[in-house]
Design goal:
heterodimer, A: 260 residues, alpha/beta, Rossmann fold, 6-stranded mixed β-sheet, 8 helices, 37% helix, B: 852 residues, alpha+beta, 5 domains, 9-stranded mixed β-sheet, 16% strand, globular, binds adenosine-5'-triphosphate, binds magnesium ion
Chain lengths: 260, 852
């Protein structure tokens, strides 16, 4: 693994979860979306989270990113505990240390690509680092699309704009929830390879939720989740090893059904 | 389909509620207006019928004599007859005269129309009972002696060409105070005097008359005899000119004549209600447009599964109908409650305003507002309903897109709007030119038409210019931070909605600005006209100024100078001279420096020097003097002077010379009048009262008069009218502001995902709220600014058209009012953003990650 440009904290975890639980509703109707999750995500690493639908992947990511509050347990970003932070602190955290890429791009339709990319800096009132901006846009192949509005961009281009937006403020971690879910395989591959390059060459930390084994194969590591618990871990995944891991989960999953 | 409509309504309840409030307010306005007008009419009806006491029949229309009365008395079934004398009496008070209608008491108490509040009715000559409002106005109390005069003009026995006034003076004792409730529209109730007094006065006025004449005769019918039967007998027995009516018929007849003013009042207020309705219609159309846009997917799905266009249209119209009915019923109830409440308060406050103790719900007062509200709602929803039918079944499969102004309709609209604006403003300008120069009514008609056309053009074109303006303002602000940048970008995303929201506010603000500019300009030119007409604020004069006018007592002089609120004083000495051997005129002398300080239009004395005399235009006209002609003045003691005449517009009846000139004509001339200039015109009442107080202690008669009183009166009339009009237009502004809040909350709902994304990438709650606040203020601010500019133009053009002839109308911009309008609009825009802002800020960022 190429770590020459990585920050010195490479060895420490960028994100940690300890006994993280999330329960929706209460009593009879209670849904335990997360039932005590302990997991570390190393800095400078590209991690994929996988698992069956409804297993709690998105929930985990929301809690780690401070978008939602945990029922119990801890979520820690670097050395900052984010569970229990108030909204103001969380907003600052998201602004400065976290980036997001969404499945449905979520660009602002009234702004151009460039305005969308620099929006996080504007929100923070920070200056745009032109060099970094150019690096991002040229690597993402957006240089000649900067004055276009989202409605004039293809899905893949939109998602690349979203990736640039997530990286512009040099956040500690980028969370991506099914970033290729709405893209065809070619556009998806472009986005994924850029995500991997940004980890390898630009020293970013990325945590990505995905259903696609070949997408997961771009990651350095795959964390498997089932029924709100960590159910496995695959390092240096290939599409085949991921599929195998998922199959193992599925058979695990099917077991109770058979018993029942 | 109805079930579906209801389900959709339930889902859009919040949005419909906002539109519903607009309907509620405007229908409440209509209902309240109708009920208030009805209350006024009804009070009058009651007062009229009360004045007939327990009479059954009323004879009127033609004068009736004793002979007619004898006929009436002989008709079978007639129990009692009251044939009052009626006339007028003058009651001098202060400087003026109050004219009172008088009648005589009835012999039969059943036919006595006056109700005594205090004291009694006159029971002999030399007594009077007066309505309560008159007693109060004249500052009288029971047992006071009231001067009462009758004046007529008769041929001068020495000069048959001339008429001279002849006056009969009486002193009457005030013996009773009468109820005046409900007589306001009739010009006040009559006073009551003894029959012998009134007969004597009438004889004085018309010595040739040989018999008493009655204009109104009341008849009571015997119990058990049908009133209509007696009515018919009287009709056959009497001359055909005499109308015989039952009391109800007569009251209705009288009220129909009297309540013209009530109907005009109702019509004017309904005009304002129409403006409120128009604004509400815009808000409703806007809401439905958005509802349809938001339901595009659902509508398309329905089309996919087989709904036809007519069904979709019907669904939207049904929704409007239901909303219209519900909101209009609530609005009508609200309007009724408001009027009921106000009446209750007025009754309890025991004011002189005649009020019934409750509203009178008629089919008209209930059905009209409801019908108007429902019609307006349905009409406003028609265009959105058509838009619903245009949704293609395919739209269900496409991602939803914001509605856009299509190119073709856009071009038609742009051209139409441009034509209307150009033509309209040209008409307005033409009106300004024609009004004063050619014909006022024609100019006014052209101007009003032009103004209306240009305003329609502005409103039609709002889709084009509002977003552009908002964008420009927004860009100015965007240096202020992200919130402003976001707000500016958001406002131009949906041009049609932003435009309609801004336009709704524009209407109200334009009208308010127009009224206050019109009033301010009118006031300015009125002041100018008054300056010329009445150059002196207050003039204090000793009795009559013909020969031998007594000198102004020294203590009055010093007292005037010592009165607070006086800016300058000029003393005038006077005498009387024979001019050119033919006419006797008064000559005043005043120190030019002092006069220049006092006069509101000093140019009227310009050119006065030791060899000249200023002759007022009025004097010049009947004495044949012109500017530059020689005037020879011969004083009582035989001194003769020849001066050069300068004719000016001075509103006086005496010529004016320098003091040293007067000194030569009459060395003993004394100060007989004083000109006073007030520091503040608002002080006029107090100052006049104080000087009157001073003067009343003097042993010579001193009169206080001046333009300031009249000026204050005019200003108060304008101010009151303006306050009422602005208040009524305010309702339209309030409705428009509801529209702003509605638009904002719709935007919030639509942008849930966007807001969540922004929150996820670091927008704080406060910034999100700030964005909406700025958005609201931008929309409201642009409406208010443009409305103010237009209103100033319209108001000024109106004043120019109407008054251009009288005086040059300077453009007076009511800065204070405009600033107030702007501040209110901005605050309201801010306020309108509070609730939507809170709900937006509550949105969890998680929503951004959810897929639709
Ligand atoms: N707001 C909510 N209220 C109640 N239950 C919820 C809520 N959000 C999620 N859940 C439940 O929590 C569980 C985990 O949901 P989550 O969205 O994390 O699943 P996921 O792994 O992301 O699934 P997918 O792959 O389908 O996106 C599910 O059973 C879901 O029904
Ligand atoms: Mg998910």
């Amino acid at each position: 693994m190429d770590t020459t440009t990585s920050p010195p904290s490479t060895t420490t975890a960028a994100v940690r979860a300890r006994g993280l639980t999330k329960t929706y509703g209460s009593g009879e109707a209670a849904v335990h979306a997360l039932a005590g999750v302990d997991v570390d995500f190393a800095a400078g690493e590209f991690t994929a989270i996988m698992g069956p639908s409804g297993s709690g992947k998105s929930t985990l990511m929301h809690l780690l990113a401070g978008l939602d509050s945990a029922t119990s347990g801890q979520a820690v970003l670097g050395s900052t505990e984010i569970t229990g932070m108030d909204d103001r602190a969380l907003t600052r955290l998201r602004r400065e240390r976290i980036g997001f890429v969404f499945q449905s791009f979520n660009l602002l339709p009234m702004f151009t690509a460039e305005q969308n990319i620099t929006l996080p800096l504007e929100l923070a009132g920070a200056k745009v680092d032109r060099e970094w901006f150019d690096t991002l846009t040229t690597t993402l192949g957006l240089a000649d699309r900067l004055t276009h509005r989202p409605s004039e961009l293809s899905g893949g281009q939109q998602q690349r704009v979203a990736v640039a937006r997530a990286l512009i403020a040099r956040p500690d971690v980028v969370f991506a929830d099914e970033p290729t879910g709405n893209l065809d395989s070619r556009s998806g591959a472009q986005v994924l390879s850029f995500l991997r390059r940004s980890v390898r060459e630009l020293g970013r930390t990325i945590i990505m939720v995905t259903h696609d084994p070949s997408a997961a194969a771009y990651a350095d590591r795959v964390v498997l989740i089932a029924d709100g618990r960590i159910a496995g871990d695959i390092t240096d995944p290939t599409p085949e090893s991921v599929l195998a891991g998922l199959d193992a989960l599925r058979s695990l999953d099917d077991l109770p059904a058979v018993v029942r | 389909m109805l079930r579906l409509t209801l389900a959709q309504m339930r889902r859009s309840l919040g949005r419909l509620t906002a539109a519903g409030i607009a309907i509620v307010i405007s229908t409440a306005f209509v209902a309240a207006t109708l009920l208030a007008g009805d209350a006024m009419t009804r009070t009058t009806y009651d007062a009229v019928s009360r004045s007939y006491a327990q009479a059954d029949l009323v004879l009127s229309q033609a004068p009736m004599t004793g002979k007619d009365l004898a006929v009436v008395g002989s008709v079978p079934g007639v129990e009692a007859v009251h044939a009052p004398l009626t006339g007028w009496v003058e009651v001098p008070n202060g400087g003026g005269i109050t004219y009172l209608e008088v009648t005589t008491p009835a012999q039969d108490p059943r036919l006595e129309g006056s109700t005594v509040l205090d004291g009694r009715l006159p029971d002999g000559p030399g007594q009077i009972a007066m309505p309560a409002d008159v007693v109060e106005r004249l500052g009288l109390s029971l047992a006071d002696q009231v001067p009462a005069t009758q004046t007529t003009y008769r041929e001068d026995p020495e000069d048959p060409e001339n008429v001279v006034p002849d006056t009969l003076e009486d002193e009457l004792e005030l013996v009773g105070v009468l109820d005046d409730t409900g007589t306001a529209l009739m010009g006040g109730g009559p006073a009551v005097v003894d029959r012998t007094d009134l007969a004597r006065w009438l004889r004085f006025l018309e010595p040739e008359a040989t018999t008493d004449v009655h204009h109104l005769v009341l008849v009571a019918v015997q119990d058990g005899v049908p009133v209509t039967e007696v009515r018919e007998s009287l009709r056959t027995a009497l001359d055909g000119d005499i109308a015989v009516r039952t009391v109800d018929e007569q009251a209705a007849e009288t009220v129909a004549g009297l309540t013209n003013s009530a109907q005009v009042f109702t019509a004017i207020v309904l005009g304002f209600a129409a403006i409120a309705l128009l604004v509400a219609a815009l808000v409703i159309a806007n809401t439905f447009q958005v509802l349809v846009a938001q339901r595009t997917r659902t509508l398309a799905l329905l089309r996919c599964v087989g709904a036809d266009r007519a069904q979709l249209r019907r669904s939207v119209v049904t929704e409007a109908l239901l909303l219209g009915v519900a909101a209009s019923v609530v609005g009508t109830a609200l309007g009724t409650l408001v009027v009921q409440g106000v009446l209750g308060i007025l009754t309890r406050m025991d004011t002189d305003v005649p009020v019934p103790d409750g509203v009178n719900l008629t089919a008209v007062s209930v059905l009209v507002p409801v019908a108007v509200g429902v019609t307006m709602t349905v009409l406003a929803a028609l265009a959105p309903a058509r838009a619903a039918t245009r949704v293609a079944p395919l739209a269900a499969l496409r991602p939803a897109e914001a509605p856009r102004v299509t190119h073709r309709s856009g071009r038609v609209r742009a051209v139409l709007s441009g034509l209307l604006m150009v033509g309209g403003f040209a008409g307005l300008a033409l009106g300004v030119v024609i009004g004063p120069r050619v014909d006022l009514m024609l100019g006014l008609a052209v101007g009003v038409l032009g103004g209306a056309a240009s305003f329609v053009g502005v409103l039609l074109g709002s889709v084009f210019w509002v977003p552009r303006l908002v964008g420009r303002f927004g860009r100015l602000l965007s240096r202020g931070g992200v919130a402003a940048t976001l707000a500016a970008a958001n406002t131009v995303r949906n041009p049609r909605r932003t435009a309609a929201t801004s336009a709704a506010l524009l209407i109200g603000v334009t009208l308010v600005a127009m009224m206050s500019t019109g009033a301010a300009s009118t006031r300015a030119s009125l002041d100018e006209a008054l300056n010329d007409e009445f150059p002196v604020d207050v003039e204090v004069i000793t009795a009559n100024r013909s020969a031998g006018a007594p000198a102004m007592p020294a203590d009055v002089l010093s007292g005037i100078r010592g009165t607070a609120g006086i800016a300058a004083v000029a003393e005038l000495t006077s005498t009387v001279v024979m001019v050119n051997g033919t006419e006797e005129i008064g000559v005043d002398a005043v120190d030019p420096a002092a006069a220049a300080e006092v006069l509101r239009s000093p140019e009227q004395l310009a050119g006065l020097d030791a060899s000249s005399v200023v002759v007022p235009a009025a004097v010049a006209r009947w004495s044949g003097i012109t500017t530059g002609s020689e005037v020879t003045m011969l004083s009582d003691d035989g001194t003769s002077l020849t001066l050069t005449a300068v004719v000016t517009d001075l509103a006086a009846y005496s010529a004016v010379v320098l003091p040293e000139v007067l000194e030569q004509l009459d060395p003993s001339a004394a100060v007989t009048s004083v000109w006073v200039r007030l520091a503040h015109l608002d002080d006029v009442e107090r100052v006049v009262a104080e000087i009157q107080q001073l003067a009343s202690g003097a042993d010579v008669a001193v009169a206080v008069q001046g333009a300031a009183v009249e000026r204050a009166f005019y200003q108060r009339v304008i101010n009151t009218l303006l306050a009422v009009v602005v208040g009524l237009l305010g309702v339209a502004v309030v409705i428009a502001l509801i529209g702003v809040a509605n638009t904002l909350s719709l935007s919030v709902l639509e942008r849930r995902r966007e807001s969540a994304t922004l929150r996820a990438i670091g927008l704080s709650r406060r910034q999100l709220r700030g964005t909406l606040a700025i958005e609201g203020m931008l929309i409201a601010g642009v409406g208010a600014v443009v409305g103010s500019v237009l209103g100033v133009a319209y108001g000024w053009a109106g004043a120019q058209t109407v008054l251009g002839e009288v005086s040059s109308v300077g453009l007076t911009v009511p800065w204070r009012d405009l600033a107030l309008v702007l501040v209110v609009a901005l605050l309201a825009g801010l306020l309108a953003s509070v609730v939507p802002g809170r709900s937006a800020a509550r949105t969890s960022p998680v929503a951004a990650l959810a897929v639709e």
